[in-house]
Amino acid sequence: MSLPRYERYKDSGVEWIGEIPEGWEVKRLKYIISNLESGVSVNATNFPATSSEFGILKTSCVYDYRFNAEGNKAIWESEVTRAKISLRKGSIIISRMNTPELVGASGFVANDHPNLFLPDRLWQTVFYPHVKIDAKWLSYIFISNSFKKLLSVTATGTSPSMKNLGQEEFTSISIPVTSLPEQTAIVTHIETECARLDAIIDKFKKQIELFKEYRTTLISEVVTGKIDVRGEVAA
What we know:
Blueprint: E1 9-11, E2 19-21, E3 25-28, E4 33-38, E5 55-57, E6 72-74, E7 86-87, E8 92-95, E9 97-98, E10 106-108, E11 113-117, E12 122-127, H1 135-142, H2 145-154, E13 163-164, H3 167-171, E14 174-177, H4 180-223, H5 230-234
Parallel strand pairs: 5-11
Antiparallel strand pairs: 1-2, 3-14, 4-12, 5-6, 7-11, 8-10, 8-12, 9-13
Helix pairs in contact: 1-4
C-alpha cells in the first residue's frame, strides 16, 4: 500500500531514526522529560484492587504496549502508607526492568488513578511544563518497532533473562520532534487507522470462529452417522 510522503527530507544524524522531514528536529528525551518517577515495592494480594482499595501496579500492566489499569494487586492495608507515587493523567508508564523482549514496554495513562501506585520497576514520566509535547504522540514513538529495538540494546544486565534501563541512558536517547499541531494530527491518524484495522481483525476473528465451529460440528455429525457420505465414497 502506497502512503503519502513529505516533499523533502534531511538526515537526522541519528542512526535509529534515519531521515526526517524538513522542518522537524531531533531532541534528546532529557529536554522533554524532567523526571522519571518510580515507586516502592509493597506487600499485596494476588487480586486486583476494588474501587475502595489501593493497588500497586504489576509490570504486566504495559505488556501489551498500552496501559491496563486492571494490571494491579490490592495493597495490604498495613502497607498502604508506604505507597508513594499515584498515576497521573497524561503520563507514560515505562517498564525499566524486564525481559529483553519487554524492557521498555510502555503505555499512555488517559485518566487519573489516585488509588493506583507505582512499584520500583516502573517509571512515570514528568514533562517540563514549557515543552510543547503531546504525551500520547510520544507514547507512540516509545512503542514503535525501531525504538523498542533501540531499548533492547540500550538495556544492560548480566542476566540473559532480565535487563535494566538506566534513567541517564534512557533520557539521552534522541527522538524526532515536530510541532504540537502535527503531533496531534499524527495521533489522530494513527488512532483512526488502528480503529479501522481493529474492526477488520475482529471481523476475521469472528469468521474464523465460525469456521472452527463448523469444523467441529462437521466431524461430530459425520462420525455419528448424521450425515450420509456414502455417495462421496462411491464417487
